[in-house]
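Hey, resending since the last one bounced:
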Amino acid sequence: MLIQSIVSHLKNMVKSKLLFIIILASISALISGCTKEVVPDLTTMYRLLPNTAISSATELTLASDQVGFWTIDTIIEKYDELPQVVHEIAYDLSVDRIKESGMSTHYDMDLDLVNNTIYITDSLTTKLVHANDCLDFYNSEVFQPIYTIPFNMPEVSLTYNNESFVYACSSSLYYPSFNHTIINRPYDSCEELETINYIPINITTTNTLNIDFDQHPDSITQTIKFVETNVSYTRPIEDNQLIVPSEEGEYEITVNCVWNEDNISRYYGHINYMFYMEIDSEPIITITSENTTPGEIVVVKADYLNDDETIMIHSNFADVSGIPLENGHAFGIIPIPCYATPDTYTLTIDLVKDDVIISQTELPFEIYDKEFIVSLLYVTESTAAIKTDDNAAKDQIYFDQARANPIQTPLFAGPFMQPVQGRISTEYGVIRVTNDDYSHSRRHYGLDIANELGTEIAATNSGLVTLSRELIITGNTIIIDHGMGLFSMYYHLDELLIEQDTMVEKGDIIAKMGTTGYSTGSHLHFGMWMDGVYLNPWSFFENDYLTRYISY
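The structure tokens again:
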């Protein structure tokens, strides 16, 4: 009970509990001795008191037959008197030697822990004692209870958005003692890691995750492990702000704190603080651009979707289902036809879960005016006779079949390339008048690139060839599905070099330039198509819409 009493008091009186342990060990050694054989005085007791003001008499009483054979008197006789006391006092104690008769002798002890020495002073003299004389005694079994006196462990505060939470921990802490006793136990306030609930994190808001200490460690590292894949990474923490994972999922977080063995007045070793985090967020709906021009696309992006959630996009031009990609992302692509009227429009985006609309977002965007020039074309009667409504209907059957089942996942890889070099004979979207018949003017829905007959033509990007055959109006024709509802088309080819249902890579040679079908010279009519709308090919070459806006 007395040992427990002094331990409790010294915890409150001394900043470093390490000093207290070393003090008790050192004083015990001085009391007991370890090199001379002296008949033990079984009637002698020693009472150790700190030389500071205390509210009540707290003492540790040791019988001489418990702690060894040396007495304070013997120690004082062994060492020479110091002419002058000049030393750094790390801690001081009062030692009272009490006999059965009630007589007592008082000594003051000053401990210099840096130099491992002790100064003993009675009423007349001061003696210098080297503690190394009794190292073996310090390691004796008698003092094991003293060495295992619990220090105050580091006090830590873990907070998420300034709110404390429950964590688990494991420790391997040591304190400087002559037998290097290890403290290896969890805090009383800690829980087993398996019993800790996940901390819910909403990553659409600003989040702070902090760790604070009463005695700051020398180094801190944070390990974040993604539970689903068991993949982890470790980062050093320079201040007390921990990293919050940015992707949805379940995480196991370990914060390793290390106190170096370079301060004899405190513990050293490490403590691991562990907890779980679950990242889940409300979906974020964004639009790639709030303005565009006819013939372009508008991309709607949804982030942080759960597996059972999707989006539906409604507009004046098309209703589009969201295309799911990895990691909770989805995209919807709205093609804007070249004849769209400049105005301010609204996209309505439904967040759908199990076929039920759970929220709705409205995003405005504006279509700017774009001038399309008039192009005059003159053809022979035989060429004009090819372009009839009946022939167009026959060709349309093959076009519809080729684009009937678009692949939803992206097949394209990186930016789209211009399939062939040459003179641009007709731009996209121009108003074409044939043989001066303005009453039957039509839009030109592609890009005409002229070059010599037989010039090689490459696939603009990777995809699946869904059509490779001769048609009436477009001549030898190739259509490639690039995924996400996007198709490229190649008309008037001289020679087809790829078969239908074949996968191609960007840059593969698929045909040679020609002048078949409704054509007045060797050229390639190249078009981009999505959901019934022919789009401006230059936008895919120059602006790189899909790879700029869509990550996959």
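The two ends are 69 Å apart (CA to CA).

Sorry for the duplicate.
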